[in-house]
Design brief:
Shape: globular
Strand order of the largest sheet: 1-4
Low-confidence stretches: none
Order of helices and strands: HEEEEHHHHH
Structural class: mainly alpha
Helix content: 40-55%
Number of helices: 6
Length: about 160
């Protein structure tokens, strides 16, 4: 099923010089965004382009937050997305942000019962390390919160 937000996103890409050929973006029966081919895509064939000028790069994020030099590019890009999401329709990136999933469920959301299934595995160790790193970034961001952002905004 086609969704107006997907159409707005595609129009935004095209109006900024991008293209989508032989693919279709639409939502499935559960409301999740999906990409489908509309024709055979040959090896090395260009079927979609997104101009670099509209990409949310580390440089774009660092320019938006010049005082936050002690943070990784990933953190700053996430923060930039939050900032742009808060702007709503005023944001240049609104058509893109509007099609992003509202929730992404990963192993980072595992409770202790779920963690029992991966106990004593490499995944458990990696997951605990990632959670610790995210918590450290969160605590550090709280001390350097950009104007107009709240603690709730950065609870990813």
């Amino acid at each position: 099923m086609t969704d107006p937000s997907i159409n707005a996103y595609l129009d935004w890409i095209k109006s900024n010089g991008g293209s989508f050929e032989k693919i279709e973006l639409k939502k499935d029966s559960q409301g999740e965004g999906c990409v489908y081919t509309t024709d055979t895509v040959k090896e090395n064939e260009k079927f979609a382009t997104v101009p670099f000028s509209i990409c949310i790069t580390e440089k774009v994020a660092r320019n938006a937050f010049p005082t936050l030099t002690g943070f990784s590019g990933r953190v700053l890009q996430s923060l930039f997305l939050v900032q742009q999401k808060n702007l709503g329709k005023k944001s240049f990136y609104f058509p893109y942000i509007n099609i992003l999933p509202k929730k992404i469920v990963t192993a980072l959301h595992f409770d202790e019962n779920d963690m029992n299934y991966i106990k004593k595995t490499n995944l458990e160790l990696a997951l605990r390390e990632r959670k610790t790193a995210l918590r450290d970034d969160f605590d550090k961001l709280l001390k350097n919160l950009p104007e107009g952002m709240s603690k709730e905004d950065i609870k990813w």
